[in-house]
């Protein structure tokens, strides 16, 4: 059974690659996939895994969730708001990568606490960001003595 969105995915990837001014070979190298495989994806002959889509998205500096929707991995109607929110965060040029990942982690936490599905986040690889955020959240003064007085003189 053929996927309805594979061709749409390939056309979109080709457009994004050209917008990024990358050759097929350059994108394949950056994403860690073979040149022929990426060519087959662009021509709609192959449906890549979520992991491959994430690698391609990272190489193109675009939202992996957008690629998941175009590949038919995510339900476009149900996940549209989440995908758009994530895309806006990831596309914001005023944020550093660390800030983007922190915002995505906060957003996912909010969704989970309020009973929303985590479908897109389950597919997205934000585990590293979550680990980094958790490491930052550990209070340092519980295990170490403060190096500076807590009260200012004056």
UniProtKB/TrEMBL annotation:
Region (Disordered): 122-154
Keywords: DNA-binding
InterPro entries found in the cross-reference section: Cro/C1-type_HTH, Lambda_DNA-bd_dom_sf, TransReg_Diox_bact_type
Record bears the keyword DNA-binding: yes
Comp. bias (Low complexity): 122-138
Tagged with keyword Acyltransferase: no
SMART domains: HTH_XRE (SM00530)
Pfam families: HTH_3
UniProt protein name: Helix-turn-helix transcriptional regulator
Organism, as annotated: Streptomyces fuscus
């Amino acid at each position: 059974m053929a996927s309805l969105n594979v061709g749409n995915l390939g056309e979109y990837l080709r457009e994004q690659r050209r917008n990024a001014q990358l050759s097929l070979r350059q994108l394949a190298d950056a994403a860690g996939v073979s040149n022929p495989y990426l060519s087959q994806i662009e021509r709609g002959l192959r449906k890549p895994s979520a992991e491959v889509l994430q690698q391609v998205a990272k190489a193109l500096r675009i939202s992996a969730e957008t690629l998941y929707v175009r590949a038919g991995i995510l339900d476009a109607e149900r996940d549209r708001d989440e995908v758009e929110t994530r895309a806006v965060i990831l596309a914001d040029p005023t944020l550093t990568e660390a800030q983007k990942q922190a915002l995505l982690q906060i957003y996912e936490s909010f969704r989970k606490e309020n009973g929303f599905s985590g479908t897109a986040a389950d597919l997205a690889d934000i585990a590293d960001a979550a680990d980094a955020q958790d490491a930052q959240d550990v209070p340092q003064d519980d295990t170490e003595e403060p190096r500076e007085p807590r009260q200012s003189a004056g």
